[in-house]
Amino acid sequence: MSKKFFGVFSIFLFSILHAQDVYSELRKKYWQYEGNDPQAFNYLNLAISTAKGEKNYAELFQAYDDATHFSSDKKLLYADSAMAAARMSKDEDLLGYSILGKGTIYYGSRKFQLALDQYLTAYHYTKKAKDPFIKFENLYHIGVVKSYLGYYQEALPIFKECYNYFEPNTRAKIHPNLIKNNTKGYLNTIHQMIVCYQAVGKYKEADRLINEGFMKTPKDQFYYLEKTYFEKSEGVSHFHQKRYKDAITNFQNSLVGLKKINDFTWVSVAYFYKGQCYQNLGKVGLALENYKKVDSIFNKHQFILPEIRKNYEELINYYKKQNDPKEELYYTKQLLKADRYIANDFKYLSTRIHKDYGTKVLLEAKTSLEHSNSYVRFLLVSSAIIIFVLGYFLYQRSKCKMKIQKNYDELIQKMTSEPTAEEKNEKVSPKRDSKLDPKLIRELQKQFLEFEKTKGFLAKGITAGKMAVQFGTNTSYLSQFINETTGNNFNAYINQLRIKYATQKMLEGKWRKYSVEDIAESSGFSNRQSFSNIFYELNGIRPQDFLKKTNEKTALRIVSQFSVSSHTTEKEINYL
Known about the structure:
- By secondary structure, the protein is mostly helical.
- It has 4 domains: 3-244, Tetratricopeptide repeat domain (Serine Threonine Protein Phosphatase 5, Tetratricopeptide repeat, Alpha Horseshoe), CATH 1.25.40.10; 372-414; 418-487, no CATH class; 502-576, no CATH class.
- The protein is built from 28 helices and no strands.
C-alpha cells in the first residue's frame, strides 16, 4: 500500500469513525494482527495522532502501550511514551500500568534486575488501584521474577493469591473483554505454579494443575499460547514419570507454538528435555541433535536457564567418550561461558547459600536446646540474645539517624554560604600558566555563566562534544577550561550542577512531593540509582533522607507558625 493511498485511506477512515468511538474501532482493526506485525501501525499511528490532537492522554497511553506489542525493535521507546502519557493523564492506575508494561519488556529481554525494579515501583501505584486487575497482574509478574531467580517457595504464595483473584473473575458478570483478561491471568498463573511445583519436586500438585489447565483452557485461538505452555509442562511431567515417548510428543507439540512467538527460553527447555528423553531411549544421535539446538539458542541469545546447564555436561561427556578433544574443548568453553551468564543473571541466588546455611545452623541449635533439661537457662539465654540484638539494632538506628542529621545540617550550612553563579564566575579563573588564549578564556567564562543560568546542564544526553559545538570551540579546549576552573572533568562538572540544582529545589519545597525517580529524571539523570549514588557522594546523604529531613523541617515550621497565630483557621491549616 503506497503512502499516498494510505493517507487518503486514513482521512476517509477517520471521517467515518469519528462519529463513533474512534479509538475502539481502531483497536478492533489493529488487534487483528499478531504481535510484532508492523502492519498494525497503519491503525496505531492514526490512534496516536488522534489522541495527541485531542489531548486525550488516557487514549494516548493506551495506543502507545498497544504499540509495544506490535513493535519489534522500539518496545522500550513506546513504553516510555506510554509512561509520559500516563503521567499527563494524572491517573495513578494508568501510571502504575505503564511502569508494569516497561518491566514486562525488560523481563522479555531477560534484564531481570531492571524488570523487578519496575514491578516493585509499579506496586507502589497498583496496590491501591481502583482496578484490582492491575494490582494482581503486577503481583503476578513479581512472582514470575522470583520464580526465575529460583525463589520457588516465595513465589508460590504470590501465585496462589493471584489465582484466588483471577479464577472467580473468569465466570463473573463482567464485560467479555475483562473475562478474557482474567482467563489469561488465571491460566498463566496456573502455568507458573506448575513450574514452581515441578522445580521443588512436587509432581502430584503439578499434575493436578496441568489437568486443570487443559480442562479450563477455552477452545479458542486466542488461548493457543496457554495450551502450548501446558503441553510443555505435561512433557516435563511425563519425563519424570519415565514416559519418554509421550514426553517427546508433548515437547514436539509445544515447540510449534513456542517458536511462533519466539519464546526462546521455553524452546531451549523443550529441546533439552527432548534430548534427555532420546538419551534414555538409547537414541544418542537424536539426543545430540537436540542438545546442539540448545547450544545454538544460547549462542544467538546469550541466555540459558540453570535448569538446563546439564545440557553442556551431556555434550562434554559424550565427546570425552568419543575421544574427540576438539569438540570436548568447545563445549567445555561453552559451559564456562554459560556459567558466567547464569552467575550474572541469577546473582541473587548467591544469597540462598547464606539463607540455607543460616537455617541449618538455627535448626541444629534448636535440636540441641530441645535435648537440654534446663528450660530456665534456655529462656535466659534467649532473652539475653533478643535484648542484645534489639539494643544493638536501636543503637545502630540511633547512630544512623544522628549521622544523617549531622550531614543534613552541614549540607544546609554549605548551601547557605555558597556564592552565586555570578560571584563564583568572577572569582574562578584558569591557572596563570594556562595555555588557553585569554580571549578564549573570557568568551568561555561568559558562555559557561549563561549555560548555568539557563540550566543547560538539565538537558539529557549532553556530552562534551555537543557542548563544544554549541560554544564554538573544540572538546580539548572545553575540557581543559573545565579542569582548570573547577578541578573536575566534564562529567563531574555536569553532575555537580545537576545535584546542586536538585538539592536546591528539594530544599525550597518545590519538589517536596516528588518521588526520587521523578527528581532524578527532572535533574537530567537517566536513572534513580545513578542519581542517588552521585547525590550521596557529593552531599553525604541519600536523596530520600534529604527529602524526609526537609519535610520534617517544613512541618515543624508550619506547626510553629500556627502556635504563635491564634487567628489561623482550620481551613488554612489544611491548606498548609
